[in-house]
Structure prediction request, 380 residues.
Amino acid sequence: MEKVAIIGVGQTKYERDKKETFAELVFEATSKALEDAGISKDDVDNIVSVSSDFWDGRTISSMAISDASNAYGKDITTVEGDGTFGVLYGMMRILSGSFGVTIVCAHHKGTESNMRGITNCAFDPLVERKLGIDAISSAALQARRYMNRYGVHEEQLALVSVKNHKNAMRNPLALLPMDISVEDVMNSRKIADPLKLLDCSPVTDGACTLVLAAEREAKRLSTSKKRVWLKGTGHCSDAFRLGDRDLSDTRALKDAAKRAYTMAGISDPRKEIAVAEVYDAFSHMELMWLEGLGFCEDGAAGEQMERGVFNSDGKLPVNPSGGRLSSHPVQVAGLAAMAECALQLRGEAEDRQLEDPQTALVHGINGMCGQSHCVWILGK
Prediction:
């Protein structure tokens, strides 16, 4: 099977209340990605837009950014998710043999959206939606179930927030770089028990674009230093209704990770992966997903966090970008995580650069409480 590479990366700064329109954000990120790849829009034959009519407040959200993403006269399609799913579709379109170079762009303006109202609409309209449940309250249910099942305590959750906000201090694009303590997290305003303000990701605006290329095109258009290869991927969904699954069970993620590891030839992820960007919209999620990805036993991530295993100078640096806790443009999140890992593998992550990583993992989700997972293995 032909390989696919990331050959260009472009991002806006992630902020609140950005004045630019959706199209202006996409144009900035896409222009940077094309410049980074050293190609022109004429080299691109396919565009995948990661966007959502709900979040945009309009129908056919990809159409309004078609010119900004250089889709005029070309094919453009829409994918919903956190960005990792957009790369999945972009890769599949390349592997179909119909396209050679694909732009995957994602945009999100959380400050122009009603997050509680939109995420409430994700639930069953006959029962769950009427309860007023949303992304935050459902995450709180998940956090409590996880804590009760494995004896995890709130201070261990707080360590995730402390680590990721500190990592963001080395990322000039992050929204919330902060040097905070466990006490600061514990004393922050309660949002939905047991989650506090600093356990939750911030409302964020921004855009990100990646340029993907089939192997034949990647070698023709880019230098070897610019190429980051998509080595393996896996995706899997769990039940839709919250009551039909144990919210502390990471079975869907374990299945997705197994598929990605098998495709990439990874037999021991703890030893073979040098850096990971893991979805952390809420602090407890990073702990759960690290367990589901096989980096530690179920229920053990909190203790590993206390030992500094997942710090930037630990055995497995996790979320050196600052993660979603520091910047969370919902539709963009997974694409930004892939951009971070691509930059790490290229040795271009500036002040947060790790020492010569060879293999990286990216994880994204879709649906409430991680209903669906997408896992990527990237390599030089």
About this structure: The first strand starts at residue 4 and ends at 11. The mean pLDDT is 96. The longest helix spans residues 22-37.
